[in-house]
Write a structure and sequence with these properties.
The complex is a heterotrimer of chains A (715), B (402) and C (393). With 715 residues, chain A is an alpha/beta fold. Chain A has 23 helices and 35 strands. In chain A, the strands form 7 sheets. A 9-stranded mixed β-sheet of chain A has the order 15-16-19-22-25-28-31-34-35, with no helix packed on it. Chain A has a 7-stranded mixed β-sheet with strand order 5-4-1-6-12-8-13, with helices on both faces. A 6-stranded parallel β-sheet of chain A has the order 17-20-23-26-29-32, with no helix packed on it. Chain B has 13 helices and 10 strands. In chain B, helix 9 links the parallel strand 1 and strand 2. In chain B, helix 4 crosses helix 6, helix 5 packs antiparallel against helix 6 and helix 8 crosses helix 9. Chain B starts with 5 loop residues before the first helix and ends with a helix. Chain C starts with a helix and ends in a 16-residue tail after the last helix. Chain C is globular and about 65 Å long. Chain C has a 7-stranded mixed β-sheet with strand order 3-2-1-4-7-9-10. In chain C, strands 5-6-8 form a 3-stranded antiparallel β-sheet, with helices on one face. The chains are: A alpha/beta (715), B alpha/beta (402), C alpha/beta (393). Chains in contact: A-B, A-C, B-C. At the A-C interface, helix 9 of A face helix 1 and helix 15 of C. Chain A: It comes from Chenopodium quinoa. Chain A: Belongs to the eIF-2B gamma/epsilon subunits family. Chain A: Pfam families: LbH_EIF2B, NTP_transferase, W2. Chain A: It is found in: Cytoplasm, Cytosol.
Chain lengths: 715, 402, 393
């Protein structure tokens, strides 16, 4: 395909041929985060504060000056196209919206390839997904992109990023995604590194040498708004294992050494941009919209024709024609849609209620998202739940935090739906890809299911309900299946609508304090390592030492098992030492401990045998021990450690204390100065501590005499 | 010294005049034949001027609105003492000679007034309209004189009722403004007059509805409204708001000594509006919870202030000091040509006050039934001419009578 | 017609996206749009005014709904409607006796006691006056009607042009009065940046008045800084203060002059945020609080009217940087209730008792006089803009 190169002079290009600004909107996220809701409706049509997400994206694109939009639909494409037709977007005067349909794309990469084949993109285009909410002005970013393109044709993409600090405790961003780590050159805004997993980060040295300054960020959020050059499309076609936009394409470009394509970033400050990726982002972004960060895309201005929303005190949005009973307490930051009635004594707070809902009396709704035409009967309690269209909740049901009720589910009376569960009229797909990260493979099998469900939708509602009616998981007169929490979904609470609960939070704090989450270092490498900033800065705490010792022990045990040479073990322990920032003495102690442990664990029947074991072990690992016992201090440390072992962990060794000490001395692992120093140290100690001293008294006596002899001899 | 205060002197003068009148009217007692009231209660029909110290206007108001309905009785309330008299027909006659004419006006007036919902002034206007209809005059001058006589008799029936006076005055002005020169034919002029009189009557009758529609915008969901006594216009306003499903609650003062507030609260309760009854002294106490004060008016004066039931001035003062808006609902025929300079600068209207225990004779009782609220304490007036600020009212009146 | 529809949609879009800033610009755009609507509207022979009024009302409803806070839109729509009625009346009354004409003319004013007594039977016939007026004469000439219809449109468009002219030149007329109000050696306080105030001050400066200006910066947009620069460029001695320092400085000030977003029927002012505070401070120190505003800002509605949105809450990003505070906004942990709520209102309401004087392009007025001006510019029928014209609401 012949690419039109932008001409040298900007004026010519603009005057002669006005290239309309184009955009590609992917109306399929190729992910399954919103199941079971997305089995019946495409993600981009899900209402966010009462308005389908795609409307937000299209409204923003229009106000940003985009003139042609290509909406790529795959899953539930008919619904998307119908929605666009009904809502007049297809007939918009300033913005031409064209739909591109495909039925066998399984990823964003496939979508890009399809679009490339259609040959509709001429020039730079904006790439967004249908679930992006933003109010930014594209002018600046576009201008930067164009300027860069003129100077360097390899600047193919400009990403929009926004500062958003992740939680220091849960290491999750506000939007429920993992912490994102980026390296950016602050002078040119070029993106050098991008990683969204919380594993230890590896940066190439070449990165640092090639750029004059590098700034590392973990407080940025990827807005998934990209301004791309037309080359991007051909890149996708050339590499057709590029599936995911970020994981494959972006990272592929970054590490690609053959072609020199560059990606740049553009940071926005006072504008807002975010993408709804999972239920947590759904919750967060809804709340941002209610707090008016996305002005003017706010409910009271963007009434898309149907009803007028009024903003009252304390962030309460109410539409026309609502029936509120006089003693209903509607709390702050709630939105009540048109035609909804709320019964007496009900409490609603921090929630969004759609149109035509009937809420009974004595209902308590907190932090929930209720879509249209929902009936909630008396006495129900909802907390941090998502309730889709047409659901009927009978009296006194309780929804625990994080519950998702999909379309038209009926929950019987007095049912308590367990936390984080999803209820849908469709059964849970029985296949489950173990690696949840491979979204595209997951969705591919998901695609098969979706097409079968599309066939099902031909059935009338009644039939569907009767099929599900046997499942009394949701109570008498209920309809729906509860999707159980299965493997790969234990982390549900991370992405859930519900905020992280108090006890979970306490758990995480606890774990962070103990350092349980510390990464496990398997293979020490020779190259420099930059450890991810997840280690507690206070390194000299007790816990760390324990940890270290465990590591050393593990290393040692492996060494024993695999017969690793001393040198290698030394290396390993060294690296452990470096990483834990330990002193040599600690190493010695730990190693000694491991050695002893090994000896103790070798089966023995009597003390004598034990002694033999110990002797054998010590002999075998003599070199190792000697390496670490380089100075007297270390040796003293070892002796002290030995005491500890005898008194606490390996009590069997206690009677053998002095014998082993003698043995160590004879092997010249421990010098007599050390022993003598240890003795003098112990002079001032308590009785308890001097048990072993007493035991070794005779040996020490002998030593003293020997030393005298030696010193005499030397003279 | 209070002996010398102008209001005291005026009071005394008024007293003497009334006493004289009373003596005079004793002679005319037997001439009367008021038609028996078709109401339930059988208490004695009050004499034409039974007690010169009682304002007939307020008697009527008390009669109308302190009526104890059966359900109120059923709630074991003691019957309102003395005030229960279905319809008070205090027909009064000016001079013996003009008995018939005057009588017929009064009769007409009374027949209109039998409906408690009808404002006195509207009744008067309709009565005057019927005078035109039934008059035998052949020239405009004659007609005018007739009307003037009728209007005077109505006015003197109760000198204390401002709205009555104002309505009659407006009607007369209305008539005098019609240029008879337009129409050479007396009959067509007369029919035109009749048309306009009826129209005026219609408008005045509908005034209440217009006012209630205008005030709907000012009642928002969740507001608290303080009302004083029983004003039919205010009642209409609140009734319409309740029917439009607005959520609000009402604080109602008792409105002693008529206790008209009790009746009002009853009516509100029937409409399912949460209502709270306050004694008159509890107004300042509850004022911070209140969002707006809604009162009716007996008359709107040229300064833009209002004359209303005793207690209104007090409430307006408290509201003003706590920065609460005071809204007045008044029909346009209540605009009167008065300019009171202080509280006592009006024709006194007195009524009996029952303290529940006998009061020693040496103790004086303040019996005035109404007070004057200056315009600076009022926020807005809702009239059938629109929503006006007090200064607009004075502008209007000046223009009219200029 | 489809042409106007696209224009209307375009404008509605712009209003919705808050792309047009400032009452004057909005007013001018609205007037121009209505002018094109009128010129493209085909009107029938009878009841022409009615047809025009309906068309304008239809467009007006959409415009007002797009941005209820921008009251200038509604004002201009009502002005145009009033113009139509007036022009219509003047055309028909050209052929009718003076008395009835005068009577008919006064129907345009809001109902008052006077009119109540004069025109009671005519009141109900007002919307049909145009047609009935012609008919009742019994002298309808078809040729006459034809020319009348063309003339009506022509007159209306001329009047609308005048209106546009007025809007464009309102600043000059106001600035002309500056000399009467600003005297030698005065200290003037203002907040934020109002173009009207700037021209006002510059006009006084040109007339060789010497005075100093205190400019309160007007957070969160800090437009006061821009005004200070402009004033400095005209050689005016300027002092910039924060909004919170107003109370401290006001004792040294002779007069406060501010602009407004809209003036309501009771004399209250919808002004940029922070001015209520300044007005209270001025009252406390007995400093005159003068509001300068063009006549397109006069609104016939009351502030308590539910159609009037007193305020618009804008994006909190003006106040706080999202990035810095994103962890405070973190709702992922805890009870889910947002702990940090940032409110950024755009306007303030200043009650009429705090304002000393209004200076409009017609002169200086008392707040309690504003209703008179409003009665001149607007007809009572147009207070509620609904598609079906209702008689006398």
């Amino acid at each position: 395909m012949v690419q039109r190169r932008p001409s040298k002079t900007a004026e010519d290009a603009d005057d002669l041929t006005h290239v309309p600004l184009q955009a590609i909107l992917l109306a399929d996220s190729f992910a399954t985060k919103f199941r079971p809701i997305t089995l019946e409706r495409p993600k981009v049509l899900l209402p966010l504060v009462g308005i389908p997400m795609i409307d937000y994206s299209l409204a923003w694109l229009e106000s940003a000056g985009v003139e042609e939009v290509f909406v790529f639909c795959c899953a539930h494409s008919k619904q998307v196209i119908n929605h666009l037709a009904k809502s007049q977007w297809l007939k918009h005067p300033n913005m031409a919206v064209t739909t591109i349909e495909s039925h066998n794309s399984v990823s964003a990469g496939d979508a890009m390839r399809v679009i490339y084949e259609r040959n509709v993109i001429h020039g730079d285009f904006v790439l967004v997904t249908g679930d992006t909410i933003s109010n930014m002005s594209l002018a600046e970013a576009l201008q930067e992109h164009k300027d860069r393109r003129k100077k360097d044709n390899n600047a193919v993409m400009t990403m929009v990023i926004k500062k958003s600090k992740p939680s220091a405790i849960t290491h999750q961003s506000r939007l429920g995604t993992d912490e994102l780590f980026m390296a950016i050159n602050p002078d040119t805004n070029q993106l050098l590194f991008y990683e969204d997993r919380a594993n230890p980060i590896t940066l190439e040295k070449s990165l640092l040498t090639a750029n004059s300054s590098v700034s590392l960020h973990n407080d940025m959020q990827d807005c998934y708004i990209d301004i791309c050059a037309p080359e991007v499309l051909s890149l996708f076609t050339d590499n057709f294992d590029y599936q995911h936009l970020r994981r494959d394409f972006l990272k592929g470009l970054l590490v690609d050494e053959i072609t020199d394509y560059k990606i740049y970033t553009h940071e926005i400050h006072s504008n807002y941009a975010a993408r709804v990726e999972n239920f947590r982002s759904y919750d967060t972004i809804s709340k941002d919209i209610m707090q008016r960060w996305t002005y003017p895309l706010v409910p009271d201005i963007q009434s898309f024709g149907s009803s007028v929303m009024k903003l009252g005190r304390q962030g309460m949005y109410s539409a026309s024609d609502i029936g509120l009973s006089s003693n209903a307490q509607i709390g702050p930051f709630t939105l009540i849609g048109k035609g909804t009635t709320i019964g007496s004594n009900s409490k609603v707070s921090n929630s969004i209620i759609g149109e035509g809902c009937k809420i009974g009396s004595n209902v308590s709704i907190e932090g929930s998202y209720i879509w249209n035409n929902v009936t909630v009967e008396d006495g129900c309690k909802l907390k941090h739940a998502v309730v889709c269209d047409g659901v009927v909740m009978k009296a006194r049901t309780v929804l625990e935090p994080g519950v998702i009720l999909s379309f038209k589910v009926v929950i019987g009376e007095d049912i308590v739906v367990p936390a984080y569960s999803k209820v849908s009229l469709y059964e849970q797909p029985t296949f489950q890809d173990s690696d949840e990260e491979l979204e595209y493979t997951d969705s591919s099998s998901g695609m098969a299911e979706i097409s079968s469900i599309n066939a099902l939708t031909g059935l009338s509602d009644g039939e569907l309900v009767s099929k599900a009616a046997e499942a009394s998981e949701v109570g008498a007169n209920g309809a729906g299946y509860i999707w159980s929490v299965c493997e790969g979904r234990e982390e549900e609470w991370r992405h859930s609508v519900a905020p992280i609960s108090e006890d979970r939070f306490a758990e995480i704090l606890q774990a962070a304090a103990e350092g349980v989450d510390l990464p496990h270092i398997d293979n020490p490498q020779h190259s420099e390592e930059l450890v991810a900033p997840s280690v507690d800065p206070e390194n000299l705490t007790e816990d760390n030492i324990d940890e270290f010792e465990k590591e050393v022990e593990a290393t040692f045990q492996r060494a024993v098992q695999e017969n690793i040479k001393d040198d290698n073990v030394i290396l390993e322990v060294n690296s452990l030492r470096l990483s834990y920032n330990m002193a040599a003495t600690d190493c010695a102690g730990a190693l000694f401990y491991s050695v002893m442990k090994l000896a103790v664990e070798t089966p023995h029947s009597s003390n004598n045998e034990l002694y033999k074991n110990v002797a054998k072990v010590i002999t075998t690992w003599k070199k190792l021990l000697k390496y670490y016992l380089a100075s007297i201090d270390e040796e003293i440390e070892v002796i002290l450690k030995f005491e500890e072992i005898c008194s606490e962990s390996a009590k069997e060794l206690s009677p053998l204390f002095s014998q082993i000490l003698h043995f160590l001395y004879s092997l010249e692992i421990i010098q007599e100065e050390a022993i003598l120093a240890w003795e003098s140290e112990k002079q001032g100690a308590d009785e308890v501590d001097r048990v072993f001293l007493k035991q070794a008294e005779s040996f020490i006596e002998w030593l003293k005499n020997a030393s005298e002899e030696e010193s005499e001899e030397e003279e | 010294m209070w002996y010398r205060s102008p209001s005291f002197i005026l009071d005394n003068q008024a007293q003497e005049k009334l006493l004289l009148q009373q003596q005079q009217h004793q002679q005319n007692d037997d001439v009367l034949n008021p038609p028996p009231p078709p109401s339930m209660s059988e208490t004695s029909v009050l004499n034409p001027n039974p007690n010169p110290n009682i304002s007939a206007y307020y008697q009527t108001r008390a009669a109308h609105h302190a009526v104890v309905t059966s359900d109120w009785l059923a709630q074991a309330q003691a019957a309102v003492a003395g005030g229960v008299s279905g319809e008070v027909t205090a027909a009064e006659v000016e001079d013996g000679c003009e008995v018939e004419k005057g009588g017929s006006v009064i009769e007409e007036f009374n027949s209109w007034r039998k409906q408690p919902d009808l404002a006195e002034a509207v009744a008067a206007i309709r009565a005057l309209a019927s005078v035109i209809r039934s008059s035998n005059a052949t020239t405009m001058m004659e007609l005018e004189i007739e009307l003037k006589k009728a209007s005077d008799s109505l006015k003197s029936w109760d000198a204390t009722s401002i709205s009555l006076t104002a309505a009659c005055d407006l009607f007369m002005r209305y008539v005098t403004r019609t240029s008879a020169l337009e129409y050479e034919d007396f009959n067509s002029a007369r029919s035109r007059l009749i048309e306009r009189a009826e129209k005026f009557g219609e408008i005045s009758y509908k005034a209440r509805r217009i006012i209630s529609m205008l005030s709907q915008d000012f009642i928002f969901d969740g507001c608290t409204i303080l009302v004083h006594g029983f004003s039919r216009v205010v009642f209409e306003v609140l009734k319409t708001a309740a029917q439009n499903k607005k959520l609000f609650r009402v604080f109602c003062t008792e409105g002693r000594p008529d206790r008209t507030g009790l009746r009002f609260s009853n009516e509100m309760a029937k409409l399912d509006v949460p209502v709270k009854l306050l004694i008159d002294s509890a107004v300042a106490y509850s004022m911070d919870e209140v969002d707006m004060v809604f009162v009716g008016a007996d008359g709107v004066v040229e300064s833009g202030g209002i004359i209303n039931m005793m207690g209104t001035y007090q409430i307006a003062l408290v509201a003003h000091s706590l920065n609460k808006p005071v809204y007045v609902a008044a029909e346009s025929y209540k605009f009167a040509r008065l300019y009171p300079l202080d509280q006592k600068d009006m024709a006194p209207a007195l009524r009996p006050i029952d303290f529940g225990v006998p009061v020693p004779s040496k103790v004086e009782i303040e019996k005035s039934a109404r007070d004057y609220t200056p315009p600076q304490y009022l926020t807005l007036l809702f009239t059938d001419l629109g929503v006006l600020t007090p200064s607009v009212v004075s502008d209007e009146l000046i223009q009219l009578y200029l | 017609m489809p042409d106007t529809q696209t224009l209307v949609n375009d404008f509605v879009n712009k209003l919705k996206k808050r792309k047009i800033e400032g009452s004057q610009a909005t007013a001018r755009h609205t007037a121009e749009l209505l002018r094109s609507v009128i010129s493209q509207q085909r009107i029938p022979y009878t009841n022409q005014a009615g047809a025009l009024i309906n068309a304008i009302k239809a467009v007006g409803e959409q415009l007002i709904a797009a941005n209820p806070v921008e009251l200038a839109v509604g004002n201009i729509i009502r002005r145009v409607l009033h113009i139509i009625r007036e022009e219509d009346l003047s055309l028909t009354t050209a052929a009718i006796a003076a008395a009835v004409a005068a009577a008919a003319r006064s129907t345009l004013r809001p109902p008052s006691l006077q009119t109540l007594l004069e025109d009671v039977p005519d009141a109900t016939a007002v919307p049909h006056t145009s047609s009935s007026g012609g008919d009742s004469e019994g002298r309808s000439k078809s040729a006459d009607k034809n020319s009348r219809s063309r003339k009506l449109k022509h007159d209306v468009i001329e009047a609308v042009n005048e209106l546009i002219q007025d809007i464009a030149t309102c600043h000059e007329h106001i600035a002309e009065q500056a000399v009467e109000h600003i005297h030698q050696n005065e200290v003037i306080l203002t907040l934020g940046r109002s173009r009207t105030v700037m021209e006002f001050l510059c006009a006084a400066k040109e007339k060789k008045r010497s005075f100093r200006v205190f400019v309160a910066e007007g957070a969160p947009r800090y437009q006061g800084h821009v005004l200070a620069k402009e004033l400095m460029a005209r050689d005016l001695q300027t002092t910039v203060i924060t909004d919170s320092a107003v109370f401290a400085m006001i004792s040294r000030v002779n007069m406060v002059i501010v602009g407004a977003h809209a003036i309501m029927a009771n004399g209250g002012v919808i002004a940029p945020v922070g001015l209520n505070m300044v007005a209270l401070a001025a009252q406390r120190h007995a400093v005159p609080f003068v509001v300068v505003a063009g006549s397109h800002k006069l609104c016939p509605l009351y502030p308590h009217n539910p159609e009037v949105l007193l305020n618009e809450l804008k994006s909190p990003s003006d106040l706080l940087d999202f990035g810095e505070f994103s962890d405070c906004l973190d709702i992922g942990c805890g009870t889910g209730e947002p702990l940090l709520h940032v409110v950024n209102p755009a306007f303030d309401y200043v009650p009429p008792n705090l304002v000393s004087l209004f200076i409009t392009d017609t002169g200086g007025h008392n707040p309690s006089y504003m209703y008179r001006l409003i009665a001149d510019y607007y007809s009572a029928d147009d207070l509620v803009i609904k598609r079906k014209s209702t008689a006398g609401n």
